[in-house]
Amino acid sequence: MAAVLPYTFLKAYPQYRPSFRHIDLKLARSLCSTGIQFFVIQICGVLLFMTTNILISKWFSPAEVTPYQVAYRYFNIAFVAFSTICIPFWNATADAYSRKDYKWIRNASHKLNMVMIGIFLLLTVMVMVSGVVYMVWIGNEVHIPFELSLCTAFYIFILCLSQRYSYILNGLNELRIQLIFIVGATIVFYPLAWYVCKTWGTVTGLVCVMCLVNIPGALANAWKYHQLFPRKQTDKDGDIE
Predict the structure, then answer these.
(1) pTM, rounded to two decimals
(2) Pairwise CA distance, residues 75 & 70, whole Å
(3) CA 50, CA 36: separation in Å to the nearest integer?
(4) Confidence of residue 95 (pLDDT cuts 50, 70, 90)
(5) Would you give the DSSP letter of residue 172?
(6) Of 37, 99, 111, 170, which one has the fewest beta carbons inside 10 Å?
């Protein structure tokens, strides 16, 4: 790839050759601000979603990681399916917003609502048959309490609900409210998780805390979307009333 760059930009397509004189420093602040917000959101996401195994191992025992991982991997199938369906809405929303096609955004939001209903039904069925699935999957070697499965399913649903709105908000470049709530959730999560785990003494308590700290962000994303697109019909030109 790198070997063909000199030929590409020096001979074949010199009109597309990068140049310092084409740099518009006026746009630097806006681009850097957006990039930094995404970076902070990603870092907080890692701290919230990727450290659970470490916390379980430290506050309980390494053996307790296995039941949680089995339940999480099982119900995460729903989240993977949701993400696969909905990720294209991010770029499509950005394109529609640039064209001021607000009617398309509303229609896309309605389709995402239908997907969320499907995810809810899927998770409900997965909870109901979880005992059978665990038996077929891992046998009797690991016991997974029903309440752990239920809380994990609810946790996955909250993540899907939050993402359902964040895909559209990201396309609209509306990151501030996501940034505020995910930073707040990260700050609150660790002391609250420590207290609940010491009080309840179960991994289910930790999953409940994970649900609790993510609910405000999901609700805030929904509120921000409905603030930008109130529950009104678009006019004949597709503009927001």
Answers:
(1) 0.81
(2) 9
(3) 20
(4) confident
(5) T
(6) 99
